[in-house]
Amino acid sequence: xxxxxxxxxxxxxxxxxxxxxxxxxxxxxxxxxxxxxxxxxxxxxxxxxxxxxxxxxxxxxxxxxxxxxxxxxxxxxxxxxxxxxxxxxxxxxxxxxxxxxxxxxxxxxxxxxxxxxxxxxxxxxxxxxxxxxxxxxxxxxxxxxxxxxxxxxxxxxxxxxxxxxxxxxxxxxxxxxxxxxxxxxxxxxxxxxxxxxxxxxxxxxxxxxxxxxxxxxxxxxxxxxxxxxxxxxxxxxxxxxxxxxxxxxxxxxxxx
Length: 256
Hints:
This protein is of the alpha+beta class. It contains seven helices and nine strands.
């Protein structure tokens, strides 16, 4: 797949946080920049005395290096056109961060009563963090699933129903031009859509074509081009045979 503007934006979106996490981890571990640790940097001097900052520093720097490594591997899989694997790897980041936050409480004496038991306020905070993590992971997982799922097409009573993310209904009698091609123009950038590796859904700006709504796996030609008065659509199925079959069905209705 060509490295276009959309892919470059995705590359930078991953590369920048990778660099930031790696840099923070380096500064905490090797330069003792503990002021970078959220919460510790705003504590009073009295409260800081109750914190084992050396242990927390090791924990936090380790987390930063691990998150940077996960994101780097996830980026590699995206560039290889394997967004599902990248999504699974990216989903691991949140549990890593949650574990680190919870583990850090062990080294903060301010979170415990005089008898050594964890304060109710700290327990409530940890419970909230865990609940939020579960909800976020579930939400991100659902988004990756539906974004990576091929669109489904039903042609019935002169209407093409496209289900899934960014679903659409197209009346065949509104189509001005119908064609089957082996390639698509280079994608300049995403306007309002989802781009997970080769799976593209929603509105994109294409070279020499402008705005178009895509429902495609860009690695699996051919592609059906539909042009109406209001929009241009490009779509395909998860196999060449299915795409050609859909085109023939559309063409039969279109020519009537």
